[in-house]
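Need residues for this backbone.
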């Protein structure tokens, strides 16, 4: 796989991710949701200050650490993608690595810039945020990640009373709300785990074939002409 194909994959994911986030941020008020395919697929606007799927990490200090970690991961990802392309790793593995990189980059853009280019979406308010106001809702590196994809495939179900710890509590699958960047990361990681034998045995096989084997005897009496 060539570098231009990797760049195309990354651009498609990042552009699609950012277009959907921009649309949701400027057209939905906080917690607004609409059914897309019945009740099991909804666009549901929330924001998170932390990790993928709404998980949080240590308040403002944790937010800064997470953003810097994402930035470091993206910088490392540029080098790593170049390395596996040069080594001609399995095309499927390169595609998965590209998806993971694109997802990390998509969420990094939110964390770095969204606080400066959007108004805040206020909990309990029925107004939508404007883009490019005179003053944003946060500074550099302190933006919130926009999430909107919600798949409550199983809902309004309760655990039986006899179930330890969760007896009687509501059960919902799938509860987290996420975005296209999260989906790209998850798709890449899961695919690598499922097909790792095929991806990496392919590379090992190529290395074996690149070694030239001969039946020639090499000793002190051999002469090179």
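Answer:
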């Amino acid at each position: 796989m060539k570098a231009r194909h990797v760049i195309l994959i990354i651009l498609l994911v990042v552009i699609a991710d950012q277009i959907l986030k921009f649309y949701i941020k400027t057209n939905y008020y906080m917690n607004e949701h609409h059914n897309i395919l019945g009740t099991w697929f909804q666009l549901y606007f929330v924001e998170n200050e932390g990790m993928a799927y709404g998980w949080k990490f240590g308040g403002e200090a944790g937010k800064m650490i997470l953003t810097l970690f994402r930035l470091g991961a993206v910088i490392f990802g540029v080098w790593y993608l170049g390395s596996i392309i040069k080594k001609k790793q399995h095309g499927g593995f390169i595609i998965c690595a590209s998806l993971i990189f694109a997802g990390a980059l998509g969420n990094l853009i939110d964390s770095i810039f969204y606080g400066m280019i959007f108004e805040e979406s206020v909990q309990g308010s029925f107004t939508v945020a404007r883009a490019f106001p005179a003053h944003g809702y946060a500074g550099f590196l302190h933006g919130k990640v926009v999430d909107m994809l919600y798949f409550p495939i199983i809902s309004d179900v309760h655990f039986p009373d006899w179930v330890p710890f969760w007896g009687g509590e509501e059960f919902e699958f799938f509860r987290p709300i996420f975005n296209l960047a999260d989906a790209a990361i998850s798709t890449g990681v899961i695919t690598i785990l499922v097909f790792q034998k095929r991806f990496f045995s392919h590379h090992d096989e190529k290395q074996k074939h690149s070694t030239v084997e001969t039946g020639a005897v090499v000793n002190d009496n051999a002469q090179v002409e």
